[in-house]
Write a structure and sequence with these properties.
The protein folds into 2 domains: 114 residues, Rossmann fold, CATH 3.40.50; 43 residues, no CATH class. The chain is 55% helix and 11% strand. It has a 5-stranded parallel beta sheet. Helix 7 packs antiparallel against helix 8 and helix 8 packs antiparallel against helix 9. The radius of gyration is 15 Å and the shape is globular.
């Protein structure tokens, strides 16, 4: 299994110290484009987050794409790199919270998961309790500027608390 990661989920998982969920949930090779790597390790990253992200990236395959395919004009260079990498490597999953990137990835035939999906999957796999996952969701929204509509927030809370845990 191969997963290609966008910046936002990596940043938000680092903020709640849960990057390890990706390896626990997917047991897969994680690909990160150099464009995404530059986004997540910018100059304004707090030192603790930078350490977590740097450690995480050391276990990923970093790929430098100079000329990504342009999937849509509205997508950023990094987003086009993600989709190009996903196509080139026959990726199983694209990890992203960006609405346009997610929509384009689905059109291109990729499965997509975001930060909320990671928390939900962690509960399903008994890695996190529902209470812990909701606490993390609340922390993301209240302390870390995780932007999500009220409708999606409430649906995520309801989904987390109604999870049937795998045996």
């Amino acid at each position: 299994m191969i997963l290609v990661a966008d910046a936002a989920p990596l940043i938000f998982l680092a903020k709640i110290n849960q990057l390890s969920l990706l390896a626990e949930l997917f047991h897969s090779e994680i690909l990160v484009s150099s464009a995404v790597s530059k986004e997540i390790l910018g100059p304004e990253v707090p030192p603790d987050e930078e350490r977590l992200l740097t450690d995480f990236l050391s276990g990923c395959k970093l790929v430098n794409l100079r000329k990504p395919v342009k999937f849509a004009k509205a997508l950023s260079f990094a987003d086009n790199c993600i989709l190009t990498l996903a196509s080139k490597e026959q990726t199983d999953i694209v990890l992203s919270d960006d609405r346009l990137l997610r929509k384009t990835a689905v059109i291109e035939g990729f499965r997509v998961i975001g930060t909320l999906g990671i928390l939900l999957r962690a509960v399903r796999n008994s890695i996190l309790t529902a209470k812990d996952a909701v606490t993390m969701l609340e922390e993301l929204v209240e302390e870390h500027n995780f932007r999500v509509s009220t409708r999606v927030y409430e649906a995520a809370r309801k989904a987390i608390f109604s999870v049937k845990v795998k045996s």
